Amino acid sequence: MTETAIAWDTYSRQRPERRPVNAHGETSWFNWTQYLDHGPGAELLEVPAGGRVLDLGCGKGGNVAHLAALGARAVGVDVSPRQLAAARERWGTAPGLELHQAEAGAFLAQDCEGFDAVYSVYGAVWFTDPARLLPAIRERLRPGGRLVFSQRPAVEGCYGCQASYIPRGDDEDPLVVKRWDYEPEAWEQVLTKHGFGEVYASVLAAPPGRRTVGTLIVSART
Ligand SMILES: C[S@@+](CC[C@H](N)C(=O)[O-])C[C@H]1O[C@@H](n2cnc3c(N)ncnc32)[C@H](O)[C@@H]1O
């Protein structure tokens, strides 16, 4: 297994499964943020009826399973075998859902059918060099298709490639994965430079409560 897959398997052990139902009593739903029952939903993707949509870094699969439930041909990709196993166990038999264990860039290089929308929720788009991944996404997005991704906003002054630490316990060093952080305006420039149009990036405020960090949501179109 690659070091990246080992790191994300370790992360997977520390993360709970999605709740059986949300605050509205729904058994599947879309969440772009780190907060429960907060923010916009799948409408940001503008997936046409029966459209094909790709989740890069789908984790335990809750969002991609929701898109399948809405009638999309929903494809989830994740580098972590453990994340994928959890996704398969909970959602694996859902009609319209495909799950693949793969690195995001490698998957995009070999799947030639194309997508109506590509998205990533705190996923592979955050953890892959945009100079490598954005051209690969653009290549596979059909004309007019949307790319939308969310992640934690950058800490002021900490831009570009940053280190994220995945703890392993008191007597072991944490594992490290790289992530890419920019201010909203810088993301708009990066996406425009890679040939995307209608690029919007903004930070959605946290819901009322003690936590204050919002969610950066970036959207663009081919
Ligand atoms: C913070 S988790 C988010 C998971 C999920 N999107 C969610 O909202 O719960 C990041 C996920 O991205 C996956 N990931 C990170 N880099 C990746 C890459 N280059 N290719 C595929 N998956 C990747 C990890 O394995 C992990 O499951």
Walk me through what this model shows:
By secondary structure, the protein is of the alpha/beta class. It has a single domain (3-221), classed as Rossmann fold (3-Layer(aba) Sandwich), CATH 3.40.50. The chain has six helices and nine strands. It has helices at residues 3-14, 62-69, 81-91, 104-110, 130-140, 184-193, and strands at 52-56, 73-78, 97-101, 115-121, 141-151, 160-166, 175-181, 197-204, 215-221. It has a seven-stranded mixed β-sheet. The protein has a two-stranded antiparallel sheet with strand order 6-7. Helix 4 packs parallel to helix 5. The longest helix is centred in the N-terminal third of the chain and has 12 residues, at 3-14. The protein binds S-adenosylmethionine (SAM).
Instruction: Tell how many strands the DSSP assignment holds.
Output: 9
What is the molecular shape?
globular
Please count the helical segments: 6
* CA(first)-CA(last) distance: 34 Å
Q: Structural class of the helix and strand makeup?
A: alpha/beta
What fraction of residues sit in β-strands?
25-35%
Largest beta sheet: what is the strand line-up? Answer: 3-2-1-4-5-9-8
CATH topology: Rossmann fold
